[in-house]
C-alpha cells in the first residue's frame, strides 16, 4: 500500500527534488506546498505532474492562524508523512503535535551541535573538524526531535560558509530520500529520544561518514 507524502518548501526545494527523483517504492508524492507564491520548486513539481498548493503566510494575522490553515490544507491530502524541505517557518507546538512521528526535517549540522541558523559559519568559527546534516523527527523544541540519521563531512582549513554548505547539501540529497524510504517501508520506530530501524541490515545507514 502506498504512503502519501506531502512536502513543504519555501524556495527551490532541492531536497524535495532529490526525494522525487529517488522514485521511492511505495511513496506517493501527494502534494508540494509552499508558503511563498514565487517558490521555484512549485513549478518544478508541477512540471512533473505533482499537485501543488500555496498558502501565503503573509495573509494571516499570526503564526497560529497560519498553522491551523496549513494543517487543514495538508490533511486534505491524507498524508502519512510530512516532509520539511527548506520550509522557512517556525511551526507552533499544536501543529507539530498534530503530526507527531509523521513530520521530519533536515538540519544542516550534526545535531545537537549548532541548533538554529548560520550553522556553517558557526562550525567554521568553532574549529570543528566534522560538520554535516541531520534528519530528525520534528518536535515543539527547535531542532531537538529524535535523530533518525546523520551524514558527516570534513571541515577544510580553507572552507567558507558557502563551500561547506554546498558539500553538506550533497549529503542531504543522499540522506533525506533514504530516510523517507525507511519510513515508507515501515522500518522506523521511536522509543523516547531513540529512533530504531526494524531491519538490522539498514542500521548501518544511520550515519554516513566521510571517506578521509
Automatic annotation (TrEMBL):
<dbReference type="InterPro" id="IPR004607">
    <property type="entry name" value="GART"/>
</dbReference>
<keyword id="KW-0658">Purine biosynthesis</keyword>
<keyword id="KW-0808">Transferase</keyword>
<comment type="function">
    <text>Catalyzes the transfer of a formyl group from 10-formyltetrahydrofolate to 5-phospho-ribosyl-glycinamide (GAR), producing 5-phospho-ribosyl-N-formylglycinamide (FGAR) and tetrahydrofolate.</text>
</comment>
<dbReference type="InterPro" id="IPR002376">
    <property type="entry name" value="Formyl_transf_N"/>
</dbReference>
<feature type="binding site">
    <location>
        <begin position="13"/>
        <end position="15"/>
    </location>
    <ligand>
        <name>N(1)-(5-phospho-beta-D-ribosyl)glycinamide</name>
    </ligand>
</feature>
<feature type="binding site">
    <location>
        <begin position="88"/>
        <end position="91"/>
    </location>
    <ligand>
        <name>(6R)-10-formyltetrahydrofolate</name>
    </ligand>
</feature>
<comment type="pathway">
    <text>Purine metabolism; IMP biosynthesis via de novo pathway; N(2)-formyl-N(1)-(5-phospho-D-ribosyl)glycinamide from N(1)-(5-phospho-D-ribosyl)glycinamide (10-formyl THF route): step 1/1.</text>
</comment>
<feature type="site" description="Raises pKa of active site His">
    <location>
        <position position="143"/>
    </location>
</feature>
<dbReference type="GO" id="GO:0004644">
    <property type="term" value="F:phosphoribosylglycinamide formyltransferase activity"/>
</dbReference>
<protein>
    <recommendedName>
        <fullName>Phosphoribosylglycinamide formyltransferase</fullName>
        <ecNumber>2.1.2.2</ecNumber>
    </recommendedName>
</protein>
<dbReference type="InterPro" id="IPR036477">
    <property type="entry name" value="Formyl_transf_N_sf"/>
</dbReference>
<dbReference type="Pfam" id="PF00551">
    <property type="entry name" value="Formyl_trans_N"/>
</dbReference>
<feature type="active site" description="Proton donor">
    <location>
        <position position="107"/>
    </location>
</feature>
<feature type="domain" description="Formyl transferase N-terminal">
    <location>
        <begin position="3"/>
        <end position="180"/>
    </location>
</feature>
<feature type="binding site">
    <location>
        <position position="105"/>
    </location>
    <ligand>
        <name>(6R)-10-formyltetrahydrofolate</name>
    </ligand>
</feature>
<comment type="similarity">
    <text>Belongs to the GART family.</text>
</comment>
<dbReference type="InterPro" id="IPR001555">
    <property type="entry name" value="GART_AS"/>
</dbReference>
<feature type="binding site">
    <location>
        <position position="63"/>
    </location>
    <ligand>
        <name>(6R)-10-formyltetrahydrofolate</name>
    </ligand>
</feature>
Amino acid at each position: 500500500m502506498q504512503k502519501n507524502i506531502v512536502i513543504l518548501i519555501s524556495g527551490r526545494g532541492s531536497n524535495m527534488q532529490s526525494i522525487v527523483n529517488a522514485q521511492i517504492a511505495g511513496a506517493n508524492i501527494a502534494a508540494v506546498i509552499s508558503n511563498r507564491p514565487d517558490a521555484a520548486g512549485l513549478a518544478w513539481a508541477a512540471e512533473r505532474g505533482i499537485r501543488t498548493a500555496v498558502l501565503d503566510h503573509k495573509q494571516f494575522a499570526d503564526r497560529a492562524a497560519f498553522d491551523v490553515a496549513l494543517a487543514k490544507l495538508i490533511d486534505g491530502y491524507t498524508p502519512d508523512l510530512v516532509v520539511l524541505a527548506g520550509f522557512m517557518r517556525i511551526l507552533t507546538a499544536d501543529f507539530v503535535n498534530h503530526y507527531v512521528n509523521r513530520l521530519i526535517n533536515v538540519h544542516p549540522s550534526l545535531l545537537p551541535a549548532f541548533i538554529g541558523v548560520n550553522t556553517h559559519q558557526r562550525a567554521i568559527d568553532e574549529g570543528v573538524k566534522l560538520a554535516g546534516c541531520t534528519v530528525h523527527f520534528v518536535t515543539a523544541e527547535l531542532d531537538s526531535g529524535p535523530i533518525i540519521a546523520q551524514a558527516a563531512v570534513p571541515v577544510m582549513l580553507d572552507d567558507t560558509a558557502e563551500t561547506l554548505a554546498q558539500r553538506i547539501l550533497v549529503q542531504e540529497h543522499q540522506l533525506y530520500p533514504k530516510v523517507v524510504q525507511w519510513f515508507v517501508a515501515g522500518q522506523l520506530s521511536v522509543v523516547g529520544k531513540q529512533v530504531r530501524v526494524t531491519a538490522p541490515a539498514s542500521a548501518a545507514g544511520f550515519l554516513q561518514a566521510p571517506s578521509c
